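Quick one, tokens below. Sequence please?
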């Protein structure tokens, strides 16, 4: 059967043969066995809903076995036989370009070159799912292939509720993932309700079909590392043996971190672009091998003494180089302390949003030993994780006392370390203490990367991870879009105020080097941090070029991790200090606003990045077709998509956002934002 017919077939009338479990593929860890036997029956009843009654007898034992073996029912046998990758848009069956664009993006999210656990439909972050099972995938692709511009597909956590009549201007797909009644949003609730087959963890771009491979994150990580280096250069805490003092930003500086997974794997590459020495610890040999073979990390080291020696040499030679240490990051922090290796920048990118199910591997246990223990003895495993987090924090604290700048990389490190009782707060005298001593409402001893870097330097001004995909699949289209985007940014930079010159320059440099850095994995995609004006102007240039036939269809989108898409008190909105960082109005407003201003699809998720119950995030996708309709939509939607977040940040009294929103109001007279009056601190100080 050819590809188009296979899509149109949906769930086949005759069951395909059982598929062998392929050990060569990176599989999701076995999930917790959390359901009672009654609940297991419910999970099976739920799974069989997708199939004709005549197939139930055959499928029941198989699904039961999947549930017992893996903790979830993935319906492996339904995984299609055709290759999974983003095809040129013309190869998809369908009645509208918009739906075909979405199919392309879904397949990209499941491409084995792109996805972390492709057979379990997990794109990244250990549990970031596109769908819960292969039946959902097949049904969705069929719906998309059949839908017209008078219909909208409703997606409830991977499950296609169906096509509903709508209209041309409505989104073609509306996605929700993991939306729970708030009281049912604890980690174990995800385990239970996901195992039942009624919800999923969509991460950010996984469940919204907007993941573009590690490139998306390389750019953000490069900006973070660059600005962190600028920060230490400004503070002139003069990193030892570094070129920061000589104006050569990264040279000789040491950056220590962990994780070579979906997003974390970008760190050594970003370190290389920023020009420092990076040590990235990773316990999973497969992840090390993948990143090393892709050229994302230069050298693999398996022995700590050798690592010390190599890092010492690199420092002496002020080399730009990245090392993958195959082992536990806790051991690196401890060893470098013993050996007095000065770390300039420190962070962590284990998946602590998912601490008990494979996101964090505790020190002192082997990789396989941990995998075994997390399902056979989850309570003991939890204790090991907590113990390891306390050890890691102790070692980090010893380094920061010696001048290391440590920041939380949005992976819930500070949060989980605090929950583990680690000394991650400071008392009045500046001593490191645990939460029990510090008091509950105390701030952590370390900032998050958003508090110190991304928030004030980028998000408050509207700069965020705008991205596009050339749906023709042609490399030359991507090249052309790169140059359109570069020209737009250069033009805008000429008139840009002093406050955003550095950001504009970093982004121009990025787009100029993007091709040479060979960042494409999967679809012909590009990420580029841009502000509202930049995003709109770039999109307009694309739309015009499509109209003229210079390039094919372009799909626009962004990471949810942006100015306005995400409410997350310990990450994206951690630099909002008026108390509203625990609210989620912005993310909800953002996605509602996008949906009626012209998005092709919208999504809103519970969880993502820092964990289930800890964040609400949303995003959009927009297919540009090179016509006036597309022009109208992009103007209306992109303006709102960025400025609603700046408006909220300005109401939070953030200076950069106040500056940016006033500038936006000057340019667009229809924009009228409520501006805060700033109380004189001395008035409050006198209050008794
Ligand atoms: N890169 C970014 O810009 C960014 C931004 C925000 C948040 N994050 C967060 O970073 C985390 C990582 O994301 P990811 O997609 O790479 O996840 P991932 O699960 O793909 O990768 C994490 C890696 O850490 C490894 N690991 C776990 N414990 C370890 C330990 N003790 N020592 C060494 N290695 C260990 C795992 O084996 C895994 O390969 C997530 O929580 C994500 O939300 C990343």
């Amino acid at each position: 059967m050819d590809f188009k017919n296979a899509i149109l077939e949906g769930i086949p009338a005759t069951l395909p043969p059982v598929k062998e479990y392929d050990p060569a593929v990176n599989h999701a860890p076995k999930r917790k066995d959390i359901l009672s036997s009654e609940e297991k029956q419910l999970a099976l009843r739920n799974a069989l809903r997708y199939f004709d009654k005549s197939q139930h007898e055959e499928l029941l034992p198989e699904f039961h076995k999947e549930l017992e073996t893996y903790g979830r029912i993935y319906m492996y046998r339904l995984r299609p036989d055709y290759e999974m990758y983003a095809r040129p848009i013309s190869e998809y069956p369908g009645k509208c370009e918009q739906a075909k664009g979405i199919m392309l993006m879904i397949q990209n999210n499941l491409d084995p070159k792109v996805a972390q656990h492709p057979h379990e439909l997990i794109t990244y972050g250990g549990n970031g799912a596109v769908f819960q099972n292969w039946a959902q995938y097949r049904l969705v692709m069929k719906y998309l292939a059949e839908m017209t511009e008078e219909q909208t597909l409703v997606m409830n956590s991977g499950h296609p509720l169906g096509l509903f009549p709508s209209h041309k201007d409505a989104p073609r797909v509306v996605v929700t993932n993991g939306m729970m009644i708030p009281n049912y949003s604890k980690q174990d609730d995800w385990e239970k309700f996901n195992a039942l087959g009624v919800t999923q963890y969509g991460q950010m771009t996984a469940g919204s079909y907007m993941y573009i491979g590690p490139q998306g994150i390389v750019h953000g990580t490069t900006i973070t590392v660059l600005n962190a280096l600028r920060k230490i250069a400004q503070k002139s805490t003069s990193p030892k043996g570094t070129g920061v003092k000589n104006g050569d930003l990264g040279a000789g500086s040491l950056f220590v971190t962990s994780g070579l997974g979906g997003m974390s794997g970008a760190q050594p590459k970003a370190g290389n672009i920023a020009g420092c020495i990076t040590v990235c610890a990773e316990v999973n040999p497969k992840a090390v091998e993948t990143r090393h073979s892709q050229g994302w990390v230069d050298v693999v080291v398996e022995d700590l003494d050798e690592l010390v020696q190599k890092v010492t040499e690199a420092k002496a030679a002020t080399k730009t180089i990245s090392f993958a240490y195959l082992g536990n990051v806790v051991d690196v922090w401890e060893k470098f302390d013993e050996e007095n290796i000065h770390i300039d920048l420190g962070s962590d990118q284990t998946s602590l949003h998912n601490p008990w199910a494979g996101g964090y591997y505790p020190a002192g246990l082997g990789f396989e030993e941990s995998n075994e223990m997390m399902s056979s003895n989850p309570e003991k495993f939890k204790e090991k994780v907590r113990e390891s987090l306390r050890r890691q924090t102790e070692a980090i604290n010893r380094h920061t006392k010696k001048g290391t700048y440590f920041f939380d990389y949005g992976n819930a490190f500070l949060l989980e370390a605090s929950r583990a009782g680690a000394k991650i707060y400071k008392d009045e005298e500046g001593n490191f203490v645990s939460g029990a001593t510090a008091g509950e409402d105390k701030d952590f001893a370390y900032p998050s990367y958003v508090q110190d870097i991304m928030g004030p330097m980028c998000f408050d001004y509207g700069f965020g991870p705008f991205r596009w995909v050339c749906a023709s699949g042609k490399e030359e289209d991507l090249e052309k879009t790169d140059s359109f985007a570069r020209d737009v940014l250069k033009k805008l930079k000429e008139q840009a105020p002093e406050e955003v010159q550095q950001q504009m320059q970093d982004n121009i440099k990025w787009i100029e080097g993007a091709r040479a850095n060979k960042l494409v994995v999967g679809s012909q995609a590009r990420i580029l941090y841009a502000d509202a004006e930049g995003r709109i102007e770039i999109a307009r240039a694309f739309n015009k070029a499509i109209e003229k036939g210079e390039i094919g269809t372009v799909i626009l989108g962004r990471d949810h991790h942006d100015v306005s898409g995400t409410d997350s008190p310990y990450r994206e909105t951690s630099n909002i200090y008026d108390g509203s960082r625990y609210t989620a109005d912005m993310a909800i407003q953002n996605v509602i606003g996008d949906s009626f201003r012209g998005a092709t699809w919208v999504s809103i998720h519970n969880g993502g990045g820092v964990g289930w119950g800890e964040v609400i995030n949303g995003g959009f996708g927009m297919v540009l077709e090179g016509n006036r309709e597309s022009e109208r939509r992009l103007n209306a939607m992109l303006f709102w998509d960025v400025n609603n977040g700046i408006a909220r940040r300005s109401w939070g009294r953030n200076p950069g956002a106040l500056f940016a929103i006033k500038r936006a109001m000057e340019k667009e007279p229809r924009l009228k934002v409520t501006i805060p009056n700033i109380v004189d601190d001395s008035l409050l100080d006198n209050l008794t």
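The domain at 3-196 is CATH 3.40.1770.10 (Urocanase fold). DSSP finds 24 helices and 19 strands in the chain.
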